Amino acid sequence: MKNYGEIKNLSFKELKGGISQKTIEIHWEKLYQGYVKKWQEIQENLETADREMANASFSEFRELKIEETFTANAIILHEAYFDILGGDGNPEGEIIEVIAKNFGSFENWLKEFKSLGLASRGWAVLGYDFNEERLRNYIADAHNLYGIWGAAPILVLDVYEHAYFIDFGSDRKSYIESFFSNLDWGKINQKFQKTAKK
Ligand SMILES: [Fe+2]
Asked: Is 102 helix (H, G, I), strand (E, B) or coil?
């Protein structure tokens, strides 16, 4: 069972391919943990927010409910992103066959996903759609923008500048290559199997 107010442990020590410890430290300790603390703060404020003053232009209650989705999605996506790193980058497992089935070939999917990483202002997500019972590529310009109801993230790429600018400058393409070289496909496969069989 997930508790958004709980900070998870990082599952790897370091990454290769140019993603530095400094970037991981800022990203995991400051940004990710910051979202967990803000989610907790929102829950505390929701206990006392005046429901009688609810208003669609502005109200404390409305603002808290919006930022609740922003912080919860930030936690979900960051944990998903960090959970699948620390591997050797070699594609393996059932998920490779399912990707090939859903996207024509693994190469087709890879090409599209990398383009998604260049086209997005925040996240590129390979998700499992429970309605269609298949994998799809999704774009998210912010943590709570453009996700669809009924799909769960499986493979998540963070393309916010904080994820790569210190190490790669504006060369996002090289960062995306590094991301793929650090993927743990065993963990991605496990996540897929667990999700698709729910
Ligand atoms: Fe991030």
From this structure: helix
151-158 and 134-140 as β-strands: parallel, antiparallel, unpaired?
unpaired
Amino acid 197: pLDDT: 86
pLDDT in tens, 56-115: 999 999 999 999 999 999 999 999 999 999 999 999 999 999 999 999 999 999 999 999
**What is the reported pTM?**
0.97
Is the same domain home to 105 and 181? yes
Q: How far is the CA of 54 from the centre of ligand 1 (A)?
A: 31
Tell me how far the alpha carbon of residue 82 lies from the centroid of ligand 1, in angstroms: 10
- Co-location of 110 and 34 in the same domain: no
Separation of 51 CA from ligand 1 center, angstroms? Answer: 32
Residue 1 identity (one-letter amino acid): M
Rounded distance from Cα 27 to ligand 1 centre (Å): 6
Counting every residue, how long is the chain?
198
Number of domains in the chain: 2
pLDDT tens track for 1-44:
999 999 999 999 999 999 999 999 999 999 999 999 999 999 99
146 and 180 together in one domain: yes
Q: Angle at Cα 197 formed by Cα 91 and Cα 180, nearest 5°? A: 20
Cβ distance 19 to 167 under 8 Å? Answer: yes
